[in-house]
Automatic annotation (TrEMBL):
Name used for this protein in its record: Cytochrome c oxidase subunit 2
TM stretches of this protein: 45-69, 90-112
Domain Cytochrome oxidase subunit II transmembrane region profile: 23-121
Organism lineage: Bacteria, Bacillati, Bacillota, Bacilli, Bacillales
Cofactors required: Cu cation
Reactions the enzyme catalyzes: 4 Fe(II)-[cytochrome c] + O2 + 8 H(+)(in) = 4 Fe(III)-[cytochrome c] + 2 H2O + 4 H(+)(out)
Annotated EC: 7.1.1.9
Source organism (scientific name): Ornithinibacillus caprae
Length: 350
């Protein structure tokens, strides 16, 4: 058994741990600062339930402390046996009815919010994006726009954007805590949810369903821009000519090596729906490599030579010839200049 010092220490440790852990998390990656409709309605429910729980806690504690003090065993009354009471209909009714009322107060808004968030009546008139979850990256197909992209999802601020989601392998779950709740992404049966962002900015997303060794590295972003910027971005993406030759000679060589080394079997540049690997049309505009690493040339060369150490279990490892330093360098040069748009996560505030 712990002595009181031990108990104090354990309590102190738990307290500090709670304090330190509560500092975890990034800005724009927290459900507690909602920046979108779904996140806001979850937050309202979190506040409601917390207030009710605190109320119950306070009432129980007050009764507990009063009982503890008033009904202590008193000096000189060691042998005193208090009146033995059994059953009390009024009390029992009260402590049955009150919890029922409290649960109804929680249940009604929860059920209403659930139906509200599942309402898809205006889906046809809204922006629809087909989302595919893959072991360990996300693909976005802009229905009707002939645009394919991966990793970064661009959407306009203040508009409902419907995500129609399927997985190409195992079950994933799409979660952008600042904007909305989670939704499972299954290999069969399309799941739909909508996102409506209130503020421009870059919001971080996570896979919220364990899906393999690199599950925790399956990060992505939602880039929320003004409606005009969104139109510009769409046009920029549509204007990409995948065959266009880069000016730079190293990049030009990289382009040839990209074709020679089987990269195109999995990676499309432009609107081709090939999506065994991430679409690279605007790869140079991304701020992250493979969703997680800072996008620098060094990191990219490391990735091309050995993706396995960066993302264990990824589906690219071993599927193309080993690349020499020069070849990897040239391909990196080529990929980094794929920057079709001025609208990027950086311009959106990341
Ligand atoms: C068998 C299919 C396949 C082949 C072949 C392949 N890749 Fe990949 N590649 C992938 C997959 C899958 C990913 C996503 C890995 C992850 O994040 O889990 C990926 C990721 C990448 C990324 C990061 C993309 C991003 O959005 O950040 C780059 C860059 C890349 N590959 C370049 C190449 C190059 C260059 C080649 C040829 C030398 C190549 N790949 C060959 C499947 C492939
Ligand atoms: Cu996943």
């Amino acid at each position: 058994m712990l002595g009181w010092m031990g108990k104090f220490r354990a309590l102190f440790l738990l307290g500090s741990l709670a304090l330190v852990l509560s500092g975890c998390g990034k800005e724009n990656l927290t459900a507690l600062v909602p920046k979108g409709y779904g996140a806001e309605s979850s937050m309202d429910l979190i506040i409601l339930t917390t207030v009710i729980m605190l109320f119950v806690f306070a009432v129980v504690m007050v009764i507990y402390v009063i009982t503890l003090i008033r009904f202590r065993k008193k000096k000189g009354q060691e042998d005193y046996i208090p009146k033995q009471v059994e059953g009390n209909q009024t009390l029992e009714t009260v402590w049955t009815v009150i919890p029922i009322l409290l649960l109804i107060i929680i249940a009604v808004p929860t059920v209403l919010a659930t139906f509200d968030l599942a309402d898809e009546t205006d889906a046809k008139d809204s922006i629809n994006i087909n989302v595919t979850g893959n072991q360990y990256w996300w693909h976005f197909d802009y229905a009707g726009e002939e645009i394919q992209t991966s990793q970064d999802l661009y959407i306009p601020v203040g508009e409902k954007v419907y995500l129609n989601m399927l997985s190409s392998d195992v079950i994933h779950s799409l979660w952008v805590p600042s904007l909305s709740g989670k939704m499972d992404v299954n290999p069969e049966n399309e799941n739909t949810m909508y996102i409506e962002a209130y503020e421009e900015g870059v919001y971080w997303g996570k896979c919220a369903e364990f899906c393999g060794p690199s599950h925790s590295l399956m990060d992505f972003k939602i880039v929320v821009v003004s409606p005009e910027e969104y139109e510009t971005w769409i046009a920029d993406m549509q204007n990409v000519d995948p065959e266009q030759e880069p000016q730079d000679t190293v990049a030009l060589e990289g382009q040839a090596l990209f074709e020679e080394n089987n990269c195109m079997a999995c990676h499309a540049i432009g609107s081709s729906p090939v999506a065994t690997g991430p679409n690279l049309t605007n790869f140079g505009d991304r701020s992250r490599l493979a969703g997680i690493k800072e996008l620098t040339k060094d990191n990219l060369v490391d990735w091309l030579q050995d993706p396995e150490t960066i993302k264990p279990g990824n589906k690219m490892t071993g599927k193309y010839p080993a690349l020499s330093d020069e070849d990897a360098d040239a391909i990196a040069e080529y990929l980094l200049q794929l920057q079709p748009s001025d609208i990027t996560p950086e311009s959106a505030g990341n």
